[in-house]
UniProtKB/TrEMBL annotation:
Pfam family, one: RibD_C
Molecular function, one GO term: 5-amino-6-(5-phosphoribosylamino)uracil reductase activity
Record GO biological process: riboflavin biosynthetic process
The species this protein was found in: Williamsia limnetica
Protein name according to UniProt: Dihydrofolate reductase
Origin superkingdom: Bacteria
Positions of the Bacterial bifunctional deaminase-reductase C-terminal domain: 3-183
Length: 190
């Protein structure tokens, strides 16, 4: 069975974006960017993969992406209807209508859809791209967290998880640090 991996960037105080979905305040060092491209290139949208020179690189971690509507919206605002054409793309939204055949919209019961995706016969995992409400809803199904902590305090914004009080334990599997202060922590479900 493949894993649902929440691969997400957060501020020191736990926000994945600013109050108006800003992410441009997250600082990135060169060694951190190089690591992202080499280790998690599958999780980059197509235009960024092209900038990194890995547009046609084989997939190594993910073959499927699951994102909430607010995570998908910036691509739409830029006129991009299929931001991850190298992955099978799912958007969870009750009211979004996709005109792109590469996008499958999950309207109801994302937990059921995730269970079905996890049961598929694939050697690669599912990338949960966010947002916080979707991650909170799917928390019991998340197998691994890859938390990219940026050395900045946002003060307010969108939290990494939006849910009620529901402690979920994970084991720390790996920590990587980078010259600019970025830290990547990988956790596996306990």
């Amino acid at each position: 069975m493949r894993k649902l991996v929440y691969y997400i960037g957060i501020s020191i105080d736990g926000f994945i974006a600013g109050p108006d979905d800003e992410v441009d305040f997250f600082p990135m060092s060169d060694d951190y960017l190089q690591w992202m491209g080499s280790e998690y290139g599958d999780a980059l949208p197509a235009h960024v993969r092209a900038q990194f020179g890995i547009a046609d690189a084989p997939l190594t971690k993910f073959d499927t992406i699951l994102m909430g509507r607010r995570t998908y919206d910036p691509a739409l605002a830029a006129g991009i209807t299929s931001p991850y054409p190298h992955l099978t793309q799912y958007v969870v939204s009750r009211n979004h209508r996709s005109g792109d055949p590469a996008i499958t919209v999950i309207r109801d019961e994302p937990d059921v859809a995730v269970e079905q995706l996890k049961a598929e016969n694939s050697g690669l995992d599912i990338y949960l791209a966010g947002g916080g409400a979707l991650a909170g809803q799917l928390l019991p199904l998340i197998d691994e967290l890859v938390i990219k902590t940026y050395p900045v305090v946002a003060g307010a914004g969108l939290p990494a998880f939006v849910s009620g009080f529901a402690p979920s334990q994970f084991d720390l599997a790996d920590v990587k640090t980078f010259s600019g202060g970025n830290v990547v922590s990988t956790y596996s479900r306990k």
